[in-house]
Amino acid sequence: MEKKTDPKKEAIRLTKLWQQYGPNTYPLDLDELVSGAILTSDFSDNLIIDRQRFDSFEGSLVRTNGTRKWTMLLNSQVRNGRRRRFTFAHELGHFMCHRELRNKFEDSEESLNDFRDEIENEANTFASWLLMPANLIRNEFGSIQWDTEALREIGNRFECSLQASALRYVRLSPKPIAFVVSRDGMILWAVKSETAPYMASYCFGDELPEGSHAVSCHQNGEVGTERQAVGPVWNDLRHAFESQYFDQSGQGYQYTCIEFQ
């Protein structure tokens, strides 16, 4: 059995084809990319896209027994268009990187957000690198200040969710920034750039730190989208700026953008 393919390299390869020989327009048209860069190439495997209603998953990739024919099944009933796009790119990641490992992939909201599963994490990496190319992020957003307004701009530019946009931007940024996802005052997960300092409140289960703008917004029911200066609450020595965004899906997520001074 062949080894899996590097998701970053595959995403970069398709990005180069799109930017050099395709329309080079963004948000990326995934259907056109598949038609132009995969279905008309010398791929030994065939891919069919099928959108319909499914009750048990958001996306799936299935091989027809004994053939090199694959069908990508996408749940048309998912209301969030950005989530549908990311699921499409995620399943494409399985096709490009993992089709020699399994004959079937099936993804729900839980598996799409499972950062502990190596295969699913790689498919997410492929999707984020493909939908949000590094060259465009650096050229268009490299000099912006990091707050929820910037986060919304990035999400709108690439038609990606705020979480996916934040993960991609923070990991690319040379600035000392971080992004924290919490609910009910407890951190669910967080990501910080390479230049960001140590953060005392960063891991799953940590409470939002006292004195932070984040905990004040949580306790007082404030919207908190305005950029606010805070003292050394996330790090013992570094002051920071914070801004908040409360998810409107009803799941109670609070997103905090942090830029250290």
UniProtKB/TrEMBL annotation:
Per the UniProt record, one Pfam family is Peptidase_M78
IrrE N-terminal-like domain boundaries: 53-168
Coiled coil regions in record: 98-125
Which InterPro entries does the record cross-reference, listed alphabetically? IrrE_HExxH, Rad_response_metalloprotease
Keywords, A to Z, come to: Coiled coil
Origin superkingdom: Bacteria
State whether keyword Plastid applies: no
UniProt protein name? IrrE N-terminal-like domain-containing protein
Which species does this protein come from? Roseovarius lutimaris
